[in-house]
Design a protein that fits this description.
The structure holds two protein chains of two kinds.
Chain A lengths: L3 E3 L4 E4 L4 E7 L4 E9 L5 E7 L4 E3 L2 E6 L4 E6 L8 E9 L6 E4 L3 E6 L1
Parallel strand pairs in A: 2-11
Antiparallel strand pairs in A: 1-3, 3-8, 4-5, 4-9, 6-7, 7-8, 9-10, 9-11
Chain B lengths: L3 E4 L2 E4 L4 E8 L5 E7 L6 E7 L2 E5 L6 E7 L2 E7 L7 E8 L9 E2 L3 E5 L1
Parallel strand pairs in B: 2-11
Antiparallel strand pairs in B: 1-3, 3-8, 4-5, 4-9, 5-6, 7-8, 9-10, 9-11
The chains are: A mainly beta, B mainly beta.
Chain lengths: 112, 114
């Protein structure tokens, strides 16, 4: 089993739709969780950190479920500019260094 | 200011060349990273520097040699590369290597080895 798994998609959704991505992780000692977006041939950009209580930033909502070891990202009212690959990132480990593991990414295409 | 800068943006080099990639951040971050990313794949960690000391080397071939001259700068020296080393090389930084710090990425250097 991969350490961090994501459905690669692509998810093709119409403008205005709501779309959700899940990301599962295998290391129960993982401590921090993040969502990044990456546009084609660009660098990953931090979208949001994911907290135990869940957090929202405008149209984006992230949730963490430690019991089932997954995090989710919900995008409401999709815009064309949301088209990108969404990368789930998990940090965890013992000692001072927290290993950073990327999921393989989920591709989103928002269609006019 | 959450900016990490990288130079050059593009680099084409032959297998016998020696070149260097440069990365700079002015966020006061004490951890800096080199990643390699191939098309349609996630970034793959190469090196981690913590407080200017190399703390992680993910079994990277010796033709890649990292250097951290000071807390703001990170270099990656390249020598005798192979065509399969062609990729996007990303630098990132974070407050430290602990659990809380988000990583911020530079725009990358797109490397082609001929």
């Amino acid at each position: 089993r991969k350490e961090v798994e994501q459905d690669p998609g692509p998810f093709n959704v119409p403008e205005g739709a709501t779309v959700a991505f899940n990301c599962t992780y295998s290391n129960s000692a993982s401590q921090s969780f993040f969502w990044y977006r990456q546009d084609c041939r660009k660098e990953p950009k931090l979208l949001m950190s994911v907290y135990s209580s869940g957090n929202e930033d405008g149209r984006f909502t992230a949730q963490l479920n430690r019991a089932s070891q997954y995090i989710s990202l919900l995008i409401r009212d999709s815009k064309l500019s949301d088209s990108a690959t969404y990368l789930c990132v998990v940090k965890g480990g013992s000692g001072g260094y927290q290993k950073v593991t990327f999921g393989t990414g989920t591709k989103l295409q928002v269609i006019p | 200011d959450t900016e990490v800068t990288q130079t050059p943006k593009h680099l084409v080099m032959g297998m016998t060349n020696k070149k260097s990639l440069k990365c700079e951040q002015h966020m006061g971050h004490r951890a800096m990273y080199w990643y390699k990313q191939k098309a349609k794949k996630p970034p793959e960690l190469m090196f981690v520097y913590s407080y200017e000391k190399l703390s992680i080397n993910e079994s990277v071939p010796s033709r890649f040699s990292p250097e951290c001259p000071n807390s703001s700068l990170l270099n990656l020296h390249l020598h005798a590369l192979q065509p399969e080393d062609s990729a996007l090389y990303l630098c990132a930084s974070s407050q430290d290597t602990g659990p809380a710090g988000e990583q911020y990425f530079g725009p990358g250097t797109r490397l082609t080895v001929t």
